[in-house]
Specification:
The protein has about 130 residues and is mainly beta. The chain has a single domain, classed as Immunoglobulins (Immunoglobulin-like, Sandwich). Helix content is about 15%, strand content about 45%. The strands form 2 sheets. The protein has a 4-stranded antiparallel β-sheet with strand order 1-3-6-5, with no helix packed on it. The chain is elongated. The N and C termini lie far apart (about 95 Å).
Length: about 130
C-alpha cells in the first residue's frame, strides 16, 4: 500500500513539475526566400516570431552558418503573446546562390530552431540606352 501511495505521489509531483509556465517560440515562417536579387541590393530580411508560451521568452543566441550572414537578436525578454523579429543581413556583394542557416537558441520549450535563407544574387543587368 505504501508503494502504491508513493508511486501516486511521485506521479502527481511529476505532473505539477511539467505543468509549469514555459516559453514557446513560434515563427511565421522558418524560411526567407530572397528570390533573385541584384548584386548590392538590400540584404536585410526579418523572421517574425511570437511567444506562444506562458512565460517570458529569452533569445540567448542567434548565429549564422557563415560570416556573410549577420543575424541580430531582440535585446530583451518577449512576454507571452508578444511578437518580435530576428533580423538577418546577407552580404549581397557575393554573386551566386544563397543557402544559409541561422540557429536560434532560447529558453523556450523548443530551445533550438533552425531558420533558412535562400535565393540568388546576380550581377546587376546592364542598362541599355
Amino acid at each position: 500500500m505504501k508503494k502504491a501511495f508513493l508511486s501516486i505521489l511521485l506521479l502527481s509531483f511529476s505532473y505539477v513539475t511539467v505543468a509549469q509556465d514555459v516559453a514557446t517560440i513560434t515563427f511565421d515562417s522558418l524560411v526567407v526566400d530572397y528570390g533573385t536579387i541584384n548584386k548590392g541590393d538590400d540584404g536585410v530580411r526579418q523572421f517574425k516570431f511570437t511567444n506562444t508560451g506562458t512565460a517570458d521568452l529569452e533569445i540567448t543566441q542567434v548565429r549564422s552558418s557563415c560570416g556573410c550572414t549577420i543575424p541580430k537578436k531582440p535585446s530583451g525578454a518577449i512576454a507571452p503573446g508578444a511578437s518580435d523579429v530576428i533580423e538577418v543581413k546577407y552580404d549581397t556583394k557575393r554573386i551566386g546562390p544563397i543557402r544559409k542557416t541561422i540557429t536560434v537558441a532560447s529558453n523556450a520549450s523548443n530551445a533550438m530552431v533552425a531558420l533558412k535563407i535562400k535565393g540568388e544574387v546576380q550581377e546587376e543587368p546592364d542598362e541599355e540606352e
